Amino acid sequence: QVQLVESGGGLVQSGGSLRLSCAASGFNLGAYGIGWFRQAPGKERERVSCMAHSGSITYYADSVKGRFTISRDAAKSAVYLQMNNLKPEDTAVYYCAADLWSSSNCATSGMDYWGKGTLVTVSS
């Protein structure tokens, strides 16, 4: 059974840090581009950060550049998002997703598998 399970969300004060994890099972994560997306209340889901299946290409939304870092651990079949200097506007449900051979270039509509999300709340 294909699964992506996020963890690591929670409540943090502005300026704090969190590390999100995404555990993949039921498929070979190494063949997939990976992405972190988020959706705030009343807003559309947006792309936050992506990494190609080769690991050679990464993307960050302008709003998180310099604060967030995406990584993957092939041995653990896991994906991470280190989030530093968090701001109240980072509050959202964060989702990880996978895209076979990075074929959709991390487009929200093109990801093949999605997790159920983990809530990040940043207080001011």
Question: Any overview of this molecule?
Answer:
The protein is mainly beta and 124 residues long. 0% of the residues lie in helices and 51% in strands. It is built from no helices and eleven strands. The strands form two sheets. Strands 2, 4, 5, 6, 9, 10 and 11 form a seven-stranded mixed β-sheet that branches. A four-stranded antiparallel β-sheet has the order 1-3-8-7, with no helix packed on it.
3D shape: globular
Mean pLDDT reading = 95
The tally of strands reads 11
Share in β-strands? over 45%
Unreliable residue runs? none
Q: Given the structure, what is the number of helices?
A: 0
Compressed to H and E, one letter per element, the order equals EEEEEEEEEEE
User: How helix-rich are the residues, as a percent range?
Assistant: under 10%
| Structural class category | mainly beta
Largest sheet: 7 strands, mixed
What radius of gyration results from the CA coordinates? 13 Å
Distance between termini?
Answer: 40 Å
